[in-house]
Design brief:
Blueprint lengths: L1 H10 L25 E7 L2 E5 L6 E4 L4 E5 L5 E5 L7 E4 L6 E8 L6 E9 L5 E5 H8 L6 E3 L5 H10 L4 E3 L6 E7 L2 E6 L4 E5 L5 E6 L3 E4 L2 H6 L10 E4 L3 E6 L5 E5 L13 E7 L4 E9 L2 E6 L5 E5 L4 E5 L5 E6 L3 E6 L5 E5 L12 E5 L13
Antiparallel strand pairs: 1-28, 2-3, 3-4, 4-5, 6-7, 7-8, 8-9, 10-11, 12-13, 13-14, 14-15, 16-17, 18-19, 19-20, 20-21, 22-23, 23-24, 24-25, 26-27, 27-28
């Protein structure tokens, strides 16, 4: 359901997001958990973190800035006036700061501009325009979303609800996350449903198009969404909506997806974790069952951590693909591994007015593990 997916994803970059009620932190599982140490409560929406050394880089979407975390919990700005700043990383040699931005219309939620900013030494600045590339190529135009051969009753029900039910991939770009990849970059574009490869000069090409995410709508789901009974039993192919991207030491690319449409539990936990092998183009689903998979971090023993925003927790996926709860953390939006193996996370301010107000935070989760990143095999 395109309109819902865009409102959700765009909402992570601008204020005014209407969200489903997150599960309270205490509901994320039983047993001992790491004890996170709050390093800042002076942020609103730290969508992504980068921790290449002793510094903590933060893409702060609601403030529209990219900065580094200070000892007093404040952010020292590097780039200000950056609309929808959401992804951040540094080049492997640390000389280039990369961050994604998306300018959206406040009233309609339509994305107007999107791209990757590359800031190097000597005030060198390059802008890779992902919106322009999307407008020219629209790679997910090969994907069919919605319902195959809907009945008249089903078509009328979706029309009445204002949801598209039969369409191909449309032009849209929301450059959400970025990771260094060789001498260039890989960007997860939540609007284009694709991964971009961007070289050091800012030239954009398509690395991968994520597949549609089909869901069989049950009678309970249809009723919860206010649809008539004829919608029960229909399969709807949702947009994949990639959120975060990370690159393992072996060159494998990992990406989380946040399927379009209502992200509350009414349609189940539909987020997924994928592995892309760039040399072959093979795309493998590593794990699924995430409720709002907004971010991921590669662990030091082959494990992968996933931030589940709407479940209020961080989950961990082991090398065998088994998923389990790792840490209850309400409003968690970002998770990242530091160069020393320490796991960090970011949470947003409370956006649901029915929940108690809470500040955005940046937290240090554990003391890390020695070693190097290894991918899942």
């Amino acid at each position: 359901m395109r309109s819902s997916s865009r409102a959700l994803v765009a909402g992570f970059a601008v204020a005014g997001l209407v969200v489903a009620t997150p599960v309270m932190a205490s509901a994320a599982g039983k047993g001992p958990h790491p004890d996170p140490e709050v390093r800042s409560d002076q942020v609103l929406a730290p969508f992504n973190l980068a921790l290449p050394g002793s510094d903590v880089y933060v893409a702060e979407g609601f403030m529209g800035l990219v900065g580094t975390l200070q000892g007093d919990g404040s952010l020292s700005p590097i780039a200000v006036g950056q609309p929808g700043a959401s992804g951040v990383d540094l080049s492997q040699d640390g000389s280039i700061l990369a961050f994604t931005t998306t300018l959206s219309d406040d009233e309609t939620g339509v994305n107007l501009e999107a791209g990757l900013n590359l800031w190097g030494p000597g005030d060198e600045k390059i802008y890779a325009d992902t919106m322009a590339y999307e407008e020219e190529h629209n790679p997910d135009a090969v994907n069919h979303y919605g319902i195959d051969n809907p009945s008249e009753c089903v078509a009328e029900a979706f029309e009445a609800a204002g949801f598209p039910y039969d369409y191909m991939g449309q032009v849209d770009s929301h450059a959400y996350s970025v990771a260094a990849w060789g001498d260039g970059w890989v960007v997860a574009d939540a609007g284009a449903n694709a991964l971009w490869s961007i070289d050091a000069e800012g030239d954009v090409s398509t690395l991968a198009v994520l597949p549609p995410q089909p869901l069989l709508i049950t009678a309970d789901m249809a009723a919860a969404l206010g649809f008539p009974s004829c919608v029960a039993g229909v399969t709807y192919a949702f947009e994949p909506v990639p959120t975060d991207v990370e690159v393992a030491a072996d060159g494998s690319v990992y990406v989380t997806t946040l399927p379009g449409g209502p992200e509350s539990a009414v349609l189940g936990a539909r987020g997924a974790l994928w592995k892309l092998t760039p040399a072959t183009g093979a795309l493998q689903k590593v794990a699924d069952g995430f409720l709002g998979a907004t971010n991921l971090a590669l662990g030091w023993k082959g494990e992968i951590y996933v931030a589940e925003y709407f479940a209020g927790k961080i989950s961990v996926v082991k090398k065998n693909g088994k998923k389990s709860d790792y840490l209850p953390l309400q409003n968690v939006i970002a998770v990242e591994t530091a160069s020393d193996g320490t796991l960090w996370a970011g949470t947003t301010i409370t956006l649901d007015p029915s929940q108690p107000p809470a500040p955005g935070t940046i937290v240090k989760v554990n003391n890390g593990h020695p070693g190097k990143h290894i991918g899942l095999n």
